[in-house]
Amino acid sequence: MMKTGKAFRVWQRNFTVYKKLYMSSIAFNFVEPVLYLVALGLGLGGFIKEINGVPYIKFIAPGLIASSSMFAVATECTYGTYIRMAHQKTFDAILATPVGIDDLIAGEVLWGATKSAFYGAIITLVIVLFGLVDSPLIILALPVLVMSGLIFAEISLIATALAPGIDSFSYFFTLLLTPSFLFSGIFFPLDTLPPLVAKIAFFTPLYHLVNICRAFASGSLYSVRWDVVWLLAAAGLLAPYPFRLMRRRMIK
Q: Binning pLDDT at 50, 70 and 90, where does residue 162 land?
């Protein structure tokens, strides 16, 4: 049976380690979205002046908050979790304490959600400093990033539980996350694509997170209430599977 206090200790352990390595980690997750913002927002934005009446750089900026948080969680809960489990044997050491398997998995999920909010907050600060946000409602994106971080952590831990080896994560990133990144509405409206592609995109959490971040950046609140409901439902529906599959993986 999972105990919240023990799950927090796992989270605390990951946070303590992260504090020693955060500079290199921040550089990786920070530089890439800023490059997209500058290269596409300013470069491509020189040819595409506006989308739906919004300057192109302002159109893509909120979506980069969402994608940055997704990739931060996915990297942590795939490569990071796998290394702790299979190579460093950190999980074996933790499970030698009163912490149980469910506590350990819950701690990993919570840590993933924390990184989602942290990296999302960094990119939010960047686009605010660039003057690309029109409303203080963008602050409301942070609790949504925690919620979406739970989803991305759950999906990533499912991939970790099923991966035969660390090299297999290239399939997860290439076949699942990259298409989600490209077809979530960050760089162009999905109504320009075939209807089938738009329908598939609807079932990706990043699509809804992009909608929410963009709406909050522009000052709209109620237009994305169903996107928030979708994320809540997805987080709840996915929640049991990381525990079942990771438990099976570690016991095996």
A: very high
- Read off the amino acid at residue 122: I
- Boundaries of every domain in the chain: 4-251
How far is the C-alpha of 14 from the C-alpha of 17, rounded, in Å? 5
Say yes or no to pLDDT of 193 above 60: yes
- Measured at the CA of 160, the angle between CA 159 and CA 163, to 5 degrees, comes to 80
